[in-house]
Amino acid sequence: MSHPRIPGRRFRPGAAGATGAVLLALVVLMALLAPVLAPHDPLAQDLAHTDAAPGVHGHPLGTDQLGRDLLSRLLYGARTPLLVGVLAVVCGGLAGTLLGLLSGFARGWPDQVLSRLADVQLALPSVLLALLVLTFGGQSTAVLVLVIALTGWPAYFRLVRSRVLALRTMAYVEASLTQGVATWRVLRYDLLPGVRGLVAVTATLDLSRAVLMEAGLTYLGLGAQAPAPDWGLMVAEGQGQLLGAWWIAVTPGLGLVALVIGANLLGERLAGRGEGRRAARSTVKKTVTARSTTA
Amino acid sequence: MIRFLVRRLALTVLAVWGALSAVFCLLHSSGDPAVMMAPVGSPPEKVAQLSHALGYDRPLAEQYASFFGDALRGHFPDSLTFQQPAMDVVLQRLGATVLLASVALAGAAAAALLIGVWTGSREGGGARREWPMWLVFLTQSVPGFYIGVLLVWVFGVELAWLPTSGATTATSVLLPAVTLACGVLPPLARVFRDNLRGELARPYSRTGTALGMSRARVVRHAAYGSMLPTVTVLGLEAGALLGGTVIVESVFSWPGVGQLAITALQNQDYPLVLADLTFLIIAFVVVNLVVDLLYGVLDPRVRHQGGQSR
């Protein structure tokens, strides 16, 4: 799964960033207001009106193979991808940032160990690793979140570590250290503020990766289970109905696309604003970090 | 060169060790792995028998030591659905996956060249020149399985032009290959385009133009200059393709290694899942190693600098 960069200079970041924010807000609102907006119970079956086309029998987006209202399922279906995505980003981001702070600050052998660990993590294919963990470590939402976070932390770690290595040599950090300021205070008040922007940008872009991964694993049957409404699962369920009732599979996919594009556009906009721009662009994607040849 | 080799090999060994250790820990995380390796609903004495036969009743440290040798030699418990060594079943499917991945990679490379030259060879032009790049940006925001489902819908169901599942005819490979290629295209197209722009801005391109060379010739020379990073990304994506095949092969029921993992999972044939995923993960690590070594061959600077500072 690759991370985004703005295609071309002519892509106006202002408009793009706003579009991204609006799309993201829309998806969040869908998830939050689902109980208010949904015309039906997302699980209520109506076997008399299965595979109904959009607009008939009082179902604005039609019904699925069990006669469940697709609009209601679309609204509720935003919840799992969003929740899993955000939780995975928070876990991976926290772990990566803390370890990166420690690694860059302590240097020496802790840095060596953690850096090699990140290298190994990046050398392993994330989807396959996730499949392995979910098969043999148990399937649950918690495991899903953890495994997505596990494959995400090295991006934060590398960025934060290299930034902290640079910040450490700055006069104000040296001053704190020579005055004997407690280590945690240096980390908290001198170094953390310097990496906050970087982490925010990475997290926004990482959200799209996390959502794509959640959707893919759910599509394969390793995420949310039927009859729960979940966009990835709904696409999988609708695939058999493409002949005659294409809307069942096509509609929920649009929700996923909106969410991922939103995160990508907003992330790009944020990356373009801060000085973290170049670092974020080149390090988030491991291909570019491992052997940066574009420079 | 030696330094580069040693560093790279050390990382490979570490990665393989890490992956296999993870597999081992996962296997033993829920007690006796024989419970998962035996057919569902086996009586306890059957499980105990299997546990003994597979050596799961030995001390953990001893098992850990022998697990590496077994895994690297492809020794896994027998597949429950196929009644033969799991790794044999996996290897029988390898051809289909390699075919699909090669077609996808070739297609993505060709598309990246076209898009790169189209959008990168000229400054300005606005949306009329930039639109393929927007399409690429859109592509990377769409989940692979959704692209697959959309292709099935449009080309398989509505237009009924192409087969949508299995590998029955020569055209079967087209839709899965396009889907897989969509996942690889964005980084490829971007790296080629960005480098092409960079090369066109360098003095040799300007000199060529000043001497009256045609634009096409200048772009061609600049394209040669942008090949190296593009080839690197191409190689890296070859590894990433292995992960993508699991999802794409499942969408199209393509009889490859990736789909095998998912069907085995649905059949609760855990020995097969284990062998399949372990194989794919090790293959991923090895492919990436080969690509890196090739890169050292292609670019002498990597050899001489020890491949460290870059």
Automatic annotation (TrEMBL), chain B:
Transmembrane segment boundaries: 94-119, 131-153, 173-192, 222-248, 277-298
Locations listed in the record: Cell membrane
Family of this protein: Belongs to the binding-protein-dependent transport system permease family.
Keyword Transport set for record: yes
Pfam family, one: BPD_transp_1
Protein source organism: Streptomyces demainii
Membrane topology classification: Multi-pass membrane protein
Protein name: Peptide/nickel transport system permease protein
ABC transmembrane type-1 domain residues: 94-291
Keyword field contains Membrane: yes
UniProt keyword annotations, A-Z: Cell membrane, Membrane, Transmembrane, Transmembrane helix, Transport
InterPro entries the record matches: BPD_transp_1_N, MetI-like, MetI-like_sf
Alphabetical list of Gene3D superfamilies matching this protein: MetI-like (1.10.3720.10)
